[in-house]
Design a protein that fits this description.
Chain A is mainly beta and 111 residues long. Helices cover 0% and strands 50% of the residues of chain A. In chain A, strand 4 and strand 5 form a beta hairpin. The termini of chain A are far apart. The relative contact order of chain A is 0.33. In chain B, the strands form 2 sheets. In chain B, strands 2, 4, 5, 9, 10 and 11 form a 6-stranded mixed sheet that branches. Chain B is globular and about 45 Å long. The chains are: A mainly beta (111), B mainly beta (111). At the A-B interface, strand 5, strand 9 and strand 10 of A face strand 5, strand 9 and strand 10 of B.
């Protein structure tokens, strides 16, 4: 099946810990995105990548890092510098200027 | 002015009625427009994409685009309780062709 796979579905982070969220797509899409969504809020762009080995900061990149070493993979690291990381994280992919498709999301909680 | 604006709602309609959702955007050169549905706790799913002025129909859904007035709307005919969700409008905009999201309109369809 073609699609976008995010893992894990639920993730718990201790204070001061870095964690990495996985996002893999087999749709052969060039562009990939990471969004953060807080309860009752809209989507906020963290990072996006339109081509392998290149990515741009979104609106709320502080405390996050990404890599795009392969076309199908766009992992997101939530670093200890992100002081309020509890949120729903969504990964999406698209061909440029066409519809984006989302993974199932990762719910991150600080414990 | 926000780049993509939607009424937050909630919009409440009786079962069987037509639900009308509106979205305005600020970038006059935008070419690609999308409607997504998001159930609580789930990731957004694509309902409609529209690229040309006029109407596009798919089942009970009709997207309407008016580039001169910079708005795109979604009509849901014969609304069902299962249509109760948040509807997100998304537009490609800017020189970097970034996907811009509205904050969403909450729709409640009452049996």
């Amino acid at each position: 099946d073609g699609g976008i796979t995010q893992s894990p579905k639920y993730l718990f982070r201790k204070e001061g810990q870095n964690v990495t969220l996985s996002c893999e797509q087999n749709l052969n899409h060039d562009a990939m995105y990471w969004y953060r969504q807080d309860p009752g809020q809209g989507l906020r762009l963290i990072y996006y990548s339109q081509i392998v080995n290149d990515f741009q900061k979104g609106d709320i990149a502080e405390g996050y890092s990404v890599s795009r070493e392969k076309k199908e993979s766009f992992p997101l690291t939530v670093t200890s510098a992100q002081k309020n990381p509890t949120a729903f994280y969504l990964c999406a992919s698209s061909q440029l200027n066409t519809e984006a498709f989302f993974g199932q999301g990762t719910r991150l909680t600080v414990v | 002015q926000k780049e993509v604006e939607q009424n937050s709602g909630p919009l409440s309609v009786p079962e069987g009625a037509i639900a009308s959702l509106n979205c305005t955007y600020s970038d006059r050169v935008s070419q690609s427009f999308f409607w997504y549905r998001q159930y609580s706790g789930k990731s957004p799913e694509l309902i409609m994409s529209i690229y040309s002025n006029g109407d596009k129909e798919d089942g009970r859904f009709t997207a309407q685009l008016n580039k001169a007035s910079q708005y795109v709307s979604l009509l849901i005919r014969d609304s069902q309780p299962s249509d109760s969700a948040t509807y997100l409008c998304a537009v490609y905009a800017g020189n970097n062709r970034k996907l811009i999201w509205g904050l969403g309109t909450s729709l409640a369809v009452n049996p």
